[in-house]
Write a structure and sequence with these properties.
By secondary structure, this protein is of the alpha+beta class. The protein has a domain at 2-37: 3-Layer(aba) Sandwich (YefM-like fold). Helices cover 37% and strands 16% of the residues. It has helices at residues 6-11, 13-19, 59-72, and strands spanning 2-5, 25-28, 34-37. Strands 1-2-3 form a 3-stranded mixed beta sheet. A hairpin with a 5-residue loop joins β2 and β3.
Amino acid sequence: MKIYTYSQAREKLADILEESKKEEIVIRRRKGDMFSIVPKTPSRRSPFDVPNLGKRIARKEILEAIRESRERA
């Protein structure tokens, strides 16, 4: 774990963010407040992966409903 002052962190933020991939980084303010920088792991889910509504609708029915709605427009 490395500790940086607020001023140091502000000067070399990009470098500190890269460092945080390897170890925890702590930024300390004058008043003693401390903040930890830890990288967040990206989610591997698709933005189109939505929770199931619990309805039993076949793919064919969904596609038919989409086609019908497009024909109306």
